[in-house]
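We examine the record.
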Amino acid sequence: MMTRNDAWTAFDAAAATAGKARIVDQFAADPDRLARMSVEAAGLYLDLSKQSWTRDAFEACLDLAHACDVEGRRAALFAGEAVNLTEGRAVLHPALRAPAGADFKALGEPVSAEVDAVRADMKTYAEAVRAGAEAGATGKRFKAIVHVGIGGSDLGPRVVWDALRPLEPSIDLRFVANIDPRDMAEALTGLDPETTLVVVVSKTFTTQETLANAEAAKAWLAAALPVEGMTKHFIGVTAAPDKAAAFGCGRTFAFRDWVGGRYSLWSAVSLSCAIALGWDVFEAMLAGAAAMDDHFVSAPLERNAPILLALAQVFNVDGLNRPARTVAPYAHALRRLPSFLQQLEMESNGKRVHRDGTPVTRQTCPVVFGEPGTNGQHAFFQQIHQGPQIVPAEFVIVAKTHGDAPESPLWSNALAQGQALMLGKTTEAAKAEGLAQGLSQEEATRLATHRTFTGNRPSTAILMDRLTPQTLGALLALYEHKTFVEGVIWDINSFDQWGVELGKVLAKAILKDVEAGRPSEALDPSTAALMRRLSQ
């Protein structure tokens, strides 16, 4: 097998050649291209044939994955080894969605029985709330849940709720993440404290924004409820249950430190969703994710959906110097997916050092952004079609988004965008189009360059028939494993997030200065001036 360095050298050479080729020409040059570069897994169909790689570049990417020991690192992840090496932790989100009776271990410690027990407690509590057996302080059934969290304690459950919520839910679920009081005010508007359950999600129960919002929610409840019944309205989800109990949570649901925040939606972090959607829906989502886990573990690299999706990104970022990617879900229910992926990918792989602490010499995670189609077509798609930078696109397409009929006016737009990005429009074709529209020769010539599309811009399509709990679970797990594979190839730790911490520390120091009424001497002139202005 090639060494890592040799594989990167071959990768660079293949990328240099592929960068001069046109995507559309590769279908004729390689008749098996579509079959080779598309794959089905866990109810999803991925088409990567419109990516910029040639057949040789595709093979070079697979060689790179072998040389970087993706298979070995994958085995270490599922074996519960300390793949989060800076914190000495296992990373076992697959254990959270495995069928009951699995045998996952974290650093040698069996954990599956604990996962099964927490899941059973979640089911019991969720079903009791929905049935009215678990009620509020005055005996009234809960009609609303306010989910308080931030980052991974918010984005995962929020994308699940938006994707699967019924049009008329029996229990209203609202989310609060921003420390801006307006966020909490909007969430509480129209709710009755007697019928509202507050679920506070914080891994450490020390997160500043979450605790501030939890205090506001607690004060809102306390103003209307008897003291002795308050705890029925306040639930904690945390890896620090003692702190949650001290805060006033009447009941807590735990998860362990081997669950990273942005990988935690499969745990009690999504208790709010399990209640509001129903346990059967939540369990089906877990099953869809477990199906993707099985595919990721068992499929060969060249037929492995997360691995191929990761290789396409590595090829664009490191082979062709494309430092951004857009994700456009063509389904209103998936409108939060780009935000979820921003955290999943950019917090995981936005790193500047290798696993051994040496500086990276290549690019790592690109900027991820997006909007649901067709909204994005009327916003930033102008840039991805005609801007000087090439931004790879990812289209997540649902055939039937509402009812039994395929939503062809919706998904035909997605297909057209991918085709247009690849084919483009020549200046000659643009001129002929202008003449056909009745423009003069001079005017058609003048406008032709403005109407020219260079094309040869890559895209990936991810298709599903319907957005079900199972396909949603598979989709989110697909992206989790994709992110992991990229980290392996870039030789970085995808499971710490030290970049989040520095701002938190400095924010606490600035708050002390505000309370003291003046900037400290250590504060830089700009920040000190801004603090004074904002404090007026």
About this structure: The chain is about 50% helix and 10% strand. The first strand starts at residue 38 and ends at 41. The chain has a mean pLDDT of 96. The CA atoms of residues 513 and 519 lie 5 Å apart.
